[in-house]
Amino acid sequence: MGLNLGMAGAGPNTLRVKVVNANWAAGEDGADGEFALLIVTEDDERHTVGGSPASMPALLALVRDSPVLLWDPDSRVLIAANLVGDWLPLDWSGRQP
What are phi and psi of 39, to 5 degrees? Predict the structure, then answer.
């Protein structure tokens, strides 16, 4: 399905991310609660992954600032591409032949 992207974490099923939603479920008073991301890929598949309270600020900043987000469902790796330079075209798709 996907292409050889030549980057760590990118397997053959890596797809472009269309939507990322962050959820927070309150815990007991004084607790951090639970965080989760909903990642929707270009094939409209939904993937849910948890995140620690400590990781969420950096993760949300990375998601917000990345021009190209990719998700490898096999290794559960979120890839923020093109943070500096243009490794992938802005219209890159894992569905390309």
Answer: -110, 120
